[in-house]
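Bug report

Summary: C-alpha cells for AraC family transcriptional regulator differ between web form and batch submission.
Environment: batch mode, default settings.
Steps: 1) Submit the sequence below via batch. 2) Compare with the web form result.

Sequence submitted:
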Amino acid sequence: MSEKAPVYSHNPYHTTKFPLLVLDVRNQHCIPENEGFQVFHWHDEVQFVSVLKGSVHVKIYDEEFDLQEQDCIFINRTALHQITGREGCHYHSYIIPAKMLAFFSGSIMEQNDVEPITNHPVFTHYYLYANVPANHQVLHQISILDQLYFQDDKYEHHEYRISIQLSKVWLEFLSLLPEMKESAPSKSYERIRTLISTIHTNYNQSISIQDIADTAHISKTECLRCFQKYIQDSPYQYLMKYRLHMSTSLLATTEMSVTDIAFKVGFHSTSSYIKYFRLFYKMTPNQYRCGPSPASAKKCSPSKITALNFDRS
C-alpha cells in the first residue's frame, strides 16, 4: 500500500496564476465541489472560515466547538479538521496558499510573518469570536474581503485588489497572535494523519485494521485508541463513511450505475453498499442522485426513476 500519496484536500487552483480557493457553503451544499467538504481532511493552505448565517460545528483533532453568525476561525495548514454546517447555515471558506501572504519566495515577510505561523508544529487554529472586541478589526477586514470577492460587478484589477485585501486580513490577524515559541511536533497529530492518510489512499481496496496500524508502526490496539480519541469512530466505521462519501461525488457527477459505483469505492456487493448508504444518508443512492438540487435533478432520467422504485422494494 502507498504511504506517501497526498491525502490532503486538493486545491485545484494550486498551480494557477491566482491560487486562492474560496468555498461558498449554503444549506450544506458546497460551491465549488471540494473533496474535503464535511469529512476529516487537511491541506497545505491556511484557512479562514467566516459564518454568515446560522452555526457551524468545527472539529480540530480531538477538540470540538460551535461558531455562530459573524464568528470566524483560522485553521493552520496540515491541521486535521472537519467543518459541518447546521441546517440553514451559510459560510465562506478562504483557503489561502502561504505564498500569497509572503509576497515572494525568500522575502523577509515570509521569514518573519508567515512561516513562523504556518509551519508551527502545534499551532493548529485560532478563534475569532464576534463578541470579543479585540477581534473586531480582523473580522472587519474579512468582511471587506468577502464583499470584494463576491461582488457581482468586478472592478478592474480584481485579483490585485483581492491580494491586497488578503494582506490586510493577515496583518490584522498577526496583531492578535502571541509570540510563537519553539515547540516539538505532536507525535499523536502526526500519527492520526498517517492513519487517516492510509484510509484515504486505499479506501477502494481490501484493507484491515492491522494494515492501517502498520503504516504508523503501531499496534492494532493503539490504532483503535487513536481513532476513538480523534474521530470517535473505529477505523472500520470511518472507512465505511469515507467510501460512502466518495460515492456521493460519483452519484452527483457521473452516469455510472449504482453497481459500478459500489465496486469502484470498495464495496463487495451492491446490496451491502445500498444498505450502508441507507443507514448513513437515510435514503438510497438513487434517491440521492435524484435529489432536489438542480445538479442532481438533471441526472434523474426515467430509467433512474425505475431503479429508484426497485430500490424501495
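Above is the batch result. After comparison, the two runs are identical; trailing whitespace caused the diff. The longest strand covers residues 46-53. Residues 65 and 95 are 20 Å apart (CA to CA).
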